[in-house]
Design a protein that fits this description.
Layout (H helix, E strand, L loop, with lengths): L9 E7 L6 H11 L3 E6 L6 H4 L6 E5 L5 H14 L4 E4 L15 H6 L3 E7 L8 H18 L11 E4 H4 L9 H13 L3 E7 L15 H20 L22 H10 L4 H16 L6 H11 L4 H6 L8 H15 L8 H6 L1 H43 L1
Helix pairs in contact: 5-7, 5-8, 7-8, 10-11, 10-15, 13-15
Length: about 400
């Protein structure tokens, strides 16, 4: 294929692990769109890729042992940058993606070399696993919390990476957790996350091949999201590799009405509202002593939650009922009996003991109350959303 000048520095990378039945067709289709294609064999044991790909005029890099999809992507990225490439489009080897959709990425990459382009899969097709739908919504929510950026399909492996910036980032994850981590760290570094719609093909369940390990990979994903959220909560700036948009538009301060509207609409999905309510309640239960509103505002700001919901829901945990309940539970955890004399004297004259018991009890009551309130808010928001959709459809 004769490429136009802008596409000469765009490469395609295909990470492969035991996709012997589909990899040849995928790589051939990629080669028909782009002249530069690199395949990374991540320790496959089901086929001889060198034999399968002979005659296709592609580069084959090999990991002696399986190191994970993230490591395979980084191996390709370093190789491509060393040979003058600017962008790398990753295509999964399982046949899920249509490589011809790579052409949809080109206009977005021509406009800027500081964009990470994500191919958002169209799930209006057959055989889409329920786990994929849930995982997609789960990943989208966490990226929003970690960066404030909304992406429709954080789990798509069909992406275009600017290799110069990708190779400067440091990662903890090397498998499926890499694909969650790289989006957050790219956004923190000032890269723009943009989306393009792509098609997707899922084979029937009995024909599907996946290297995703539900327990281990979900554990890795939980670990990486915990680390990203923890880092996000720290009031420390991130190193910028590219100049991004300012975090706060100070011109909004001249328009209080716009600020209020923005706050009301902020992360107003059912998932976002439920998370805002749950975290607001959990923090409100803790013995933060006159600091609840400030702490809730800070956490809501850092995690891009709905601040109005998070702050106002704290009234559910106002004294005396919830603190007294926490003290009773904490006292029982310490002494194996209930505190029968909960009075001014036993609370304030023994304040340090009661504060410790309040803290202990809040570690049990807080998550339970947060789960209850979050579930109620989520269910209510879903119902309201359905009613509104029905009214609009009439």
């Amino acid at each position: 294929m004769q490429q136009s000048s802008p596409e000469k520095t765009i490469w395609c990378a295909v990470p492969v692990y035991n996709n012997g039945s589909t990899v040849t067709d995928v790589v051939a289709a990629c080669r028909s769109v782009l002249g530069n294609v690199v395949v990374v064999d991540d320790g496959s044991t089901d086929a001889d890729l060198a034999s399968l790909l002979s005659g296709l005029d592609v580069i084959l890099l090999t990991h002696e042992h399986n190191r994970g999809k993230g490591e395979a992507i980084l191996t390709a990225s370093r190789y491509i940058e060393a040979r003058g490439g600017s962008y790398m489009i990753t295509v999964d080897a399982d046949g899920q993606h249509d490589p011809r959709d790579m052409e949809r990425f080109f206009p977005l990459m021509r406009d800027s070399d500081k964009r990470l382009v994500i191919g958002c899969r169209d799930f209006n097709t057959e055989h889409v696993p329920a786990s994929s739908r849930f995982g997609r919504a789960f990943a989208n929510f966490w990226l929003k919390a970690e960066t404030g950026v909304t992406v429709d399909d954080c789990q798509s492996g069909f992406r275009a990476y600017p290799v110069r910036y990708l190779n400067q980032l440091k990662f903890k994850g090397s498998r499926y957790d890499f694909e969650a981590e790289v989006l957050a760290k790219a956004a923190w570094a000032g890269l723009e996350l943009v989306m393009v719609s792509v098609s997707v093909h899922y084979p029937k369940p009995e024909e599907r091949v996946s290297s995703f390990k539900p327990f281990l990979d979900n554990l890795r994903l939980s670990r990486i999201h915990s680390m990203l959220v923890g880092r996000r909560l720290l009031p420390l700036p991130h190193k910028k590799l590219a100049a991004g948009k300012p975090a706060v538009d100070l011109s909004l301060l001249r328009h209080p009405g716009k600020v209020l509207k923005m706050l009301l609409q902020e992360n107003a999905t059912p998932e976002g509202l439920a998370a805002s309510a749950a975290i607001g309640v959990f923090l409100a239960v803790l013995p933060l002593l006159f600091m609840h509103t400030l702490v809730i505002l800070y956490v809501a700001l850092r995690l891009n939650l709905n601040k109005i919901v998070a702050v106002n829901v704290q009234h559910i945990a106002m004294p005396p009922l919830v603190p007294a309940l926490c003290i009773e539970v904490g006292y029982y955890m310490r002494h194996g009996a209930w505190l029968t004399d909960l009075s001014f004297a036993t609370v304030f004259e023994q304040f340090s003991a009661r504060l410790y018991e309040w803290f202990l009890g809040s570690l049990l009551i807080g998550p339970l109350l947060a789960l209850l309130v979050g579930t109620i808010v989520y269910s209510t928001a879903v119902v309201i959303k359905k009613v509104r959709y029905a009214d609009v459809s009439k």
